[in-house]
Amino acid sequence: MSIAKKFIILISMMFIILSSFTVMAKEYTAKGTVNAIKSESKKLTISHGPVKGLMGAMKMDFTVSDPAMLSDVSIGNTIKFTLDEDKKGNLTITDLEIIENSEKVMAE
Sign of dihedral through CA atoms 88, 94, 100, 105? Predict the structure, then answer.
């Protein structure tokens, strides 16, 4: 077998191996209201609007990537959040920003 053929086979094998390790996470942004904070399970229950390219508006639980996020929010906060979807379809909040505090909501 020629050196060129061996090289092509080697490169092909490396490409196959490396592509099997690549995790193609999808990222989405959404806006919603915090309905519940579930510290034990590291989840937030959020009533959210449509998530473009993923789902319509609904109320559901989301796991947070960093449990410290749970102490950053309060029930009633309106938040903008980033969701990562792994290759198995699991959704995780990786970033969030409080748009409106619950104190403002209660004052209105």
Answer: positive
